[in-house]
């Protein structure tokens, strides 16, 4: 038969062909809701039975509903005692468990940052087993995240050693080889390609490839194909199955079992008694698996035939080229088989291993649900986690991430929804900020709270990973149990039972599979979700498989296994759908359900592809003309009017979550104004459940309607209100509130203050090395106003009234080491300028230098011999500081962004610079000069490394490669650089051996006794003055200095004691000016005279005004607690009613004591406490203990995440009666 004739019958036959029977699905697998019975010791797994009473668990949550932090085992050598101490600190706050994480370097491949001992070594298992044993004692879980460990980026990480390095486990990618057109009767010979598994010739009619073709394998000989084409046009395709080095094949039979055996099972084998008890919270973070759309396996074609009923090779070109109407079907079928194999062979076995042991197995995938085609089908992969999850960085909530994760958990009845919270918010993160974000995230369906930051070590404040660390280092840790307890209750309550929503939005995967503008469908779906929630309508994303198992009952679309029941279904810009989706949409619409479409209608399915009359008919049945919209806002309005909404604010819009647990209807409501009315589609006794305390109180019902109940809600808009209906009980209204206007009395603005240090430095977390003086870091002076002494200053510098605003600000350890001139223009006469500047014996910074008719001035260049340039420790790593202090302390040029560092680039005015200083020595010496050289080849992202173009000593040019003779006294040094960049220039005594040890966090010059300090004053020594505003009640200070010290406080000399301690003769009540006069050693000036912070002691008698304490001198750098104390009098009639203490505003947390008794702790607004039970008539004492954040401490640390230092009891503080 002629090929033209064949084409005429192709379409009709293909419809029958593609509709032929397929292999029946594995029923156990297809019921992905089916749950295993967990062991008795499993914790944190919810109940969904009709007889559940959630009140006892809400009042006192059972084990497993507390926070589970990421525990970063990086930053220092692991020490079992230190780890155990940290566990016990966490246990005190009710934390359920920990998940060990490892960070990574920013080197190629992102190698795991692995301190001693190396992971999975015998020594590491010893550490892990001991920690796991302690967790078991404390009834805490412990697991490990595969973050960095399983990344197939080419680095030699753990999974590379365990799996990826083995070729037989590597993923395989389907690739097309050459395509060759052959005419009928023509004989062609062509070479086979590497990794070829098939070669096939397809008929071509009117330029389009047809299904079927001829297998050319029989025509292969000696690596070549020789074939004579029959009549017509043909196209030869070669197909390759290419192994992907350094990866794992999830389509391979047994791949999941391989990972279980090599990784997960190892933890049980090393656990006490080889039991899984105590193990929990394993995690895939940013998992990379497979090779995407074209993933392949050796049995893929056979599995395709059995599952789809036709031969893949007959249509395989459709994966790349248009083979007619069948093309989208082939692509969707390929995707389905790929996903099925991945689920069955990889994800399901790993899920089952965890589920059978009662473990939470969670994820935060790279796309966080925002990429429906991640892994091929995000929904299908993520349903194989017991806690689908995601992150929300920076103190924010994310509606779409939350709804995707929670929809998967709801539809597949997974126990929890993992919320990885708030990395990169910075060291100023407050409970207030993350309280609101976490409430929102729980509103969106999250139920397992995981704070990203729990660091094993912060290594002298110089190791961090997307900070902050929210746990025991934070000053407010003493109050964190109140914050965490709130979410323990919500985690328990909102995990039980099932989610209730009226609207289901199809999660658009099919358009990606069919290559039909998946991004448009996704963007429309997500925009619709945001608009629905903004309108007060909650919703759920639904996948094809859930629609396939859904039934239509009583005009609702019901997924019985999930207890889900919808009144509306929405598709958005989905030109491609799977057949069960459109079939169920049509059935739902025909039964009276509301089925809406926004944007493009479906034109393609996996039934037969394009141009399908059956699909067109189903589309018409599914979407009535009035249910088709071009814009999301129209769809939202139609939904709003279509039925009585579950939650409706009266004269306001509120957002709400609804769950059904046992017989109760549980609502979480946000955005309701105080004492406003909200109508719920529920009836019965209605109560407010207080997540702070576990208490329940009846709410006031305004009206019971035919469809629900109007309820008055009492809390502030900022709060989340838990409203619970018990339909089996009749409601009894509480007494009406007393609406008499309250009277208010503002308390004093100045309070007595006592400082409560919290920065425990026993392990060197905040400062290294650990010394007797810094084991607990409290009040310190770190930054000073500084000036060299003049005749006038000698008389006035110590007086508090002296104006020091024009003095230079200096950080301890940092001082002037050079004067710098430039940038200078490139066309300067270098020889003439060199000669002129080399003659200088002393630099006068007030005198200008004329260059090409333009005046330039010398500027001080400051650095620390320990820390280098202030604020710039050089190249670090991703997400913060990495224990690195670069040796390159000279930075010239304009600052520009770089990869984890600051780059220095040429400025517009030029790139030539001069540095001038002196090498002042007590006797003649021979000195060597050390300068920076070229940058390493793998650091192309860094600044150029600068090397001096010329060096002059004592006016003569010198060869930096040879020793230089220095005379006794001052030796002027001039260094010229002809480009911008970063480098170092050091002079040292040639005959002095190098240091045998090195101080942590220091340049290599710091401990070197041979280094010659630079002296910008050329031996002209003057006393130097330092001033700072000290804390109220300062009674003593401790000063380490490179020179003789005198001290004054408020103009009065302080008594010098031993060891650099100075004591005030009269303790000032308020903040006080401390002045230090230091006679320096040669080569030391400015802040370098004071290598360590000045320690400040107070006696508790000080007074401080309410407000931001970071504005009060040295308190700018104080992270810790302040106990504010005052008193007030109350008349007898004033204590007859409730007495409310209003704190105004607080950063970050506050604990209130009245007459010595604890009245409460507040970690977020509203900043008020009922103190009625603690006050008395007459005199009352009031104490407010406020803890701030670590932002204040980090103000002098070169972290990109310092945060705001605003701190304290900001006030105003008032009593309300």
Give an account of the 3D structure.
Helices cover 19% and strands 30% of the residues. The protein is an alpha+beta fold and 1217 residues long. Among the domains are: 60-167 and 254-290 and 360-498, Aldolase class I (TIM Barrel), CATH 3.20.20.70; 500-642, 3-Layer(aba) Sandwich (Rossmann fold); 652-726, Sandwich (Immunoglobulin-like); 779-812 and 1014-1098, Galactose-binding domain-like (Jelly Rolls); 815-863 and 866-989, no CATH class. Helix 7 (255-269) runs parallel beside helix 9, helix 8 packs across helix 9 (327-355) and helix 17 (579-590) crosses helix 18 (613-622). The protein is globular and about 100 Å long.
CATH architecture of the domain at 60-167 and 254-290 and 360-498: Alpha-Beta Barrel
Query: What percent of residues adopt helix (DSSP H or I)?
Result: 10-25%
CATH superfamily placement of the domain at 60-167 and 254-290 and 360-498: Aldolase class I
Q: Give the overall shape, derived from the CA principal axes.
A: globular
The total of beta strands comes to 78
Rounded radius of gyration (Å): 36 Å
